[in-house]
Write a sequence for this structure.
């Protein structure tokens, strides 16, 4: 598994970081082929829009090109499919989720010198532009439409509950490691749902390179090990979680799980 560090991710575009992540999860993913596909799109965008001096018109033109002419779109039918988190699949299908579509869109923005930044909003990735109008402009990469703070406030309440309040910190641009960390969580969830446990395990192991002692990630890794019939290591991960988070409601259930797993171990004579 290739190394994936904050320092490495900060030297890449978000799309390149995502491709590196995808390769770390599935070694058959060709990072160079993804880069070539991104560059072909960027060359076409530059050819059509590069001479436009007005930033607002350039951005509007890119939205039309990306979402209408090229027909990139959000996956309404299978939002949680792992195809939506693998950049190569997103480029092939022209379909994805806010994070993956936003990463491709940002790659094009950089080539067109558009000052668009990713924002890890609690509910999804949002794109922020600061130099277009007096106030920040926000774009939903799922469909290319602009959203205002009222809509963002509604998304926040839907994500965190009716008492959640929109704060300035929610609207700040995010660095690549933050976004890739969330991407990794989404990828793991999708792969677990599809019972692709070997790749889900690689997601968990990657997450633990960033936070080696995270008890919740270790608990999740234990679940994956259990699905892979690695009962002894699963029990060890569960025991670590129980020790670190004794008051968590899941701890009592996991104690019973550990007991059952240990009882299933064969007796050696």
């Amino acid at each position: 598994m290739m190394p994936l560090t904050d320092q490495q991710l900060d030297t890449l575009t978000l799309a390149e970081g995502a491709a590196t992540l995808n390769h770390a999860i599935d070694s058959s993913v060709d990072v160079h082929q993804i880069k070539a596909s991104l560059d072909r799109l960027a060359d076409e965008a530059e050819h059509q829009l590069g001479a436009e001096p007005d930033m607002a018109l350039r951005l509007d033109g890119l939205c039309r090109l990306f979402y209408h002419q090229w027909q990139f779109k959000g996956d309404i039918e299978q939002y949680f499919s792992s195809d939506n988190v693998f950049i190569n699949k997103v480029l092939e299908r022209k379909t994805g989720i806010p994070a993956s579509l936003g990463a491709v869109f940002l790659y094009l923005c950089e080539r067109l010198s558009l000052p668009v930044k990713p924002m890890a909003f609690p509910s999804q990735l949002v794109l922020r532009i600061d130099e277009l109008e007096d106030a920040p402009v926000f774009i939903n990469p799922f469909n290319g439409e602009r959203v205002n703070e009222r809509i963002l406030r509604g998304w926040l309440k839907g994500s965190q509950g009716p008492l959640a309040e929109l704060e300035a910190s929610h609207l700040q641009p995010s660095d690549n490691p933050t976004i890739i960390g969330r991407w990794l969580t989404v990828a793991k969830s999708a792969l677990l749902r599809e019972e692709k446990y070997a790749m889900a395990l690689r997601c968990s192991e990657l997450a633990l390179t960033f936070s080696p002692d995270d008890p919740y990630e270790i608990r999740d890794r234990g679940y994956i090990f259990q699905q892979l019939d690695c009962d002894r290591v699963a029990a060890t991960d569960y025991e670590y979680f129980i020790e670190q988070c004794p008051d968590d409601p899941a701890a009592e259930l996991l104690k019973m799980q550990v007991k059952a797993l240990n009882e299933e171990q064969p007796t050696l004579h």
